[in-house]
């Protein structure tokens, strides 16, 4: 097992375009998390899945953002009509138990640049 | 709003010295505490976790927790230039079994 995998590693898009990121968690992990990190800040929680159910969405996730985890395996995060303020590193993490038990491991992230 | 506060630094120490990184948190019900290391352009990497008051040692790293003071620290002994990175403190609260709240990180620079 190679850990949490995220694709693409980098994405440059024009303002107004739609983008989609993919996260493949560690295979036996049933919990999956998306975070966003901007320069000079710590990661901020976006959303959480337990199996295929999306159990919480942060208010940071505007209507332009949607996340899915079909069949409780990989997850996608889509941003519609991108804005320059969406430029950030998008991080995915997974865990078998809650992070309070052991923390969780992040993937390598997808760096989005909106021009 | 639950917060985790860290001094942004940079904290500059000479090679071989002890680096001391500090973090305070606002949610008194917080149960679990973590330190992540993040190299520039990379994702955060979990290096330490601590759940009860006192010290926890792992190699050159020691995490210290004082719940009464709502204070967590990370000591790095025999600092190496390869330790130069941003160190993120993360806390998960009593009411959230799945969400970590991160501080903004402290940038550590170890001078050769």
List key phrases describing it.
heterodimer, A: 115 residues, mainly beta, four-stranded antiparallel β-sheet, globular, B: 112 residues, six-stranded mixed β-sheet, five-stranded antiparallel β-sheet, 11 strands
Which chain pair has the greatest contact?
Answer: A-B, 27 and 25 residues
> What's the SSE pattern of chain B?
EEEEEEEEEEE
- Low-confidence blocks of residues of chain A: none
- Distance between the first and last residues' Cα of chain A: 36 Å
Protein described:
- The complex is a heterodimer of chains A (115) and B (112).
- By secondary structure, chain A is mainly β.
- Helix content of chain A is 3%, strand content 49%.
- Chain A contains 1 helix and 11 strands; from the N terminus they run E-E-E-E-E-E-E-E-E-H-E-E.
- Chain A has one helix at 99-102; strands spanning 5-7, 10-13, 19-24, 31-37, 44-50, 53-57, 65-68, 75-79, 88-95, 105-106, 110-114.
- The longest helix of chain A has 4 residues, at 99-102.
- Chain A is globular and about 40 Å long.
- The mean pLDDT of chain A is 92.
- Chain B is mainly β.
- Chain B is built from no helices and 11 strands.
- In chain B, the strands form 2 sheets. In chain B, strands 2, 4, 5, 9, 10 and 11 form a 6-stranded mixed beta sheet that branches. A 5-stranded antiparallel beta sheet of chain B has the order 1-3-8-7-6, with no helix packed on it.
- At the A-B interface, strand 5, helix 1 and strand 10 of A face strand 4, strand 5, strand 9 and strand 10 of B.
Secondary structure elements and pairings:
The complex is a heterodimer of chains A (115) and B (112).
Chain A: E1 5-7, E2 10-13, E3 19-24, E4 31-37, E5 44-50, E6 53-57, E7 65-68, E8 75-79, E9 88-95, H1 99-102, E10 105-106, E11 110-114
Chain B: E1 4-5, E2 11-14, E3 19-25, E4 32-38, E5 45-50, E6 54-58, E7 61-66, E8 71-76, E9 85-92, E10 101-102, E11 106-111
Summarize the structure.
The complex is a heterodimer of chains A (115) and B (112). Chain A is mostly beta strands and 115 residues long. Helices cover 3% and strands 49% of the residues of chain A.
């Amino acid at each position: 097992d190679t850990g949490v995998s995220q694709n693409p590693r980098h994405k440059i898009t024009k303002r107004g375009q739609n983008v989609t990121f993919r996260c493949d968690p560690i295979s036996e992990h049933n919990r999956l998390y998306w975070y966003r990190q901007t320069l000079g800040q710590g990661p901020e929680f976006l959303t959480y899945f337990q199996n295929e159910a999306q159990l919480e969405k942060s208010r940071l996730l505007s209507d332009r953002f949607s996340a899915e985890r079909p069949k409780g395996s990989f997850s996608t995060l889509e941003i519609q009509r991108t804005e320059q303020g969406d430029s950030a590193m998008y991080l995915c993490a997974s865990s078998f138990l809650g992070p309070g038990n052991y923390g969780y491991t992040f993937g390598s992230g997808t760096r989005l640049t909106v021009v | 709003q639950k917060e985790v506060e860290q001094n942004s630094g940079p904290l500059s120490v000479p090679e071989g010295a002890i680096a001391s990184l500090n973090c305070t948190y606002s949610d008194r019900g917080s149960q679990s505490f973590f330190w992540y290391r993040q190299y520039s352009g990379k994702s955060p990497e979990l290096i330490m976790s601590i759940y009860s008051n006192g010290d926890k040692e792992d190699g050159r790293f020691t995490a210290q927790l004082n719940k009464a003071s709502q204070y967590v620290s990370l000591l790095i002994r025999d600092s190496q230039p390869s330790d130069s990175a941003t160190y993120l403190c993360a806390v998960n609260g009593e009411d959230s079994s799945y969400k970590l709240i991160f501080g903004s990180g402290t940038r550590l620079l170890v001078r050769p």
